[in-house]
Specification:
The chain is of the alpha+beta class. It is built from eleven helices and ten strands. It is elongated, with a radius of gyration of 41 Å.
């Protein structure tokens, strides 16, 4: 068999084997056998030394043409195998478009967010602006500038979570009020703000307590505010949250940052003040604390108390939601139980 006949035979054998390949691995084996370093063509190249010098170029050209023909056929077969694999995969993974789609439930705001926005809408309508601040606070802003020096016994009213000796997780949103007063006092600017946000206290988690909860506080500082303005604001708030029929009463209390201070009760919306299990027979439910801003707090922030005065109030959003919607366990707000959340979608 001469060299040209041998090349023809090799091409025919290679073509037959390539056609029979069903996988990429089988095709790779054929390619190595015919185009690799130890292929039949490599052996034929070794035979060129036995040819006459004038015959070698032509023979080398024929070998290269044969290798190119086999390589092209391998590439063509690879595309056929790939197409077949895609076809088989599509058949196995076919989708019946006539089947009904999955029911995707529409999301909604959490109940806490709903109550916060309800309060915010009310106060924004009365001309207040929203202020926010850091949840990790200094002792200076969280206590001392609110008339609570380090030795003050009222600090025992709030079990605090300290990070360092002078840094803690804020126990109320009042530090936001302090920061806002410091920004505006130098220019003798009045303030009318609300401060929503999370606060932290070292409480045991049970039905009525949580180490983390949500507050909204309001602050007004100007030259004319009075306790009658505070009472009017509280009455509007109570009616907005619990119904137009609601009334409020103010009871004397004590807070270091307000003087005078009051606890605010609202007439029970369940029994309309007649007395029931929710109001423990009294007809009234305590909802928040308030008072006129203590002069010591205003002076610490840089306000001239001969000109300026103000009032403040603060409420726990979870408590408002519990009373408004009849929820019996504060932990339900944080467990992410969809059975609970869906009630308020």
């Amino acid at each position: 068999m001469n060299n040209l006949q041998q090349l023809k035979t090799i091409i025919e054998e290679a073509t037959t084997k390539i056609k029979s390949c069903l996988t990429f691995n089988e095709l790779a084996d054929v390619k190595a056998a015919y185009l690799g370093k130890k292929s039949v063509f490599a052996e034929m190249m070794q035979q060129m030394k036995d040819l006459q010098p004038e015959d070698r170029p032509a023979f080398g050209q024929k070998i290269n043409e044969a290798k190119t023909e086999i390589s092209d056929f391998i590439d063509s077969r690879r595309k056929e195998i790939e197409s077949e694999m895609i076809r088989i995969k599509l058949e196995k993974e076919s989708v019946d478009v006539s089947l009904p789609g999955k029911d995707i439930r529409q999301g909604a705001k959490h109940l806490i967010s709903q109550v916060i926005e309800e309060v915010e809408d009310l106060f924004i309508g009365m001309g207040y602006s929203i202020e926010e601040g850091p949840e990790i606070e200094s002792d200076l802003y969280n206590f001392e500038m609110l008339n609570l020096p380090k030795t003050h016994p009222a600090r025992d009213m709030q079990d605090s979570l300290y990070i360092t000796e002078d840094t803690l997780l804020r126990t109320h949103t009042s530090p936001v009020q302090v920061r806002t007063m410091l920004r505006h006092s130098a220019a003798n600017e009045p303030i009318k703000i609300i401060c929503p946000g999370k606060v932290y206290r070292k409480d045991d988690d049970d039905q009525t307590h949580s180490h983390q909860f949500t507050q909204i506080e309001a602050l007004v500082v100007d030259e004319s505010s009075s306790i009658s303005d505070l009472k009017g604001t509280l009455l509007v708030l109570a009616k907005k949250l619990f119904g137009e029929e609601r009334q409020i009463r103010l009871r004397p209390s004590y807070f270091p940052f307000t003087e005078p201070s009051v606890e605010v009760d609202v007439s029970c919306h369940k029994c309309n003040g007649a007395g029931c299990s929710m109001c423990k027979g009294s007809g009234w439910i305590e909802i928040l604390g308030a008072g006129m801003v203590n002069n010591a707090v205003l002076e610490a922030a840089g306000y001239d108390t001969s000109r300026f005065q103000g009032f403040a109030l603060g409420m726990g959003i979870e408590r408002i939601a519990i009373l408004k919607y009849g929820i019996d366990d504060i932990r339900a707000f944080y467990t992410n139980d969809m059975r609970f959340n869906r009630q308020f979608l």
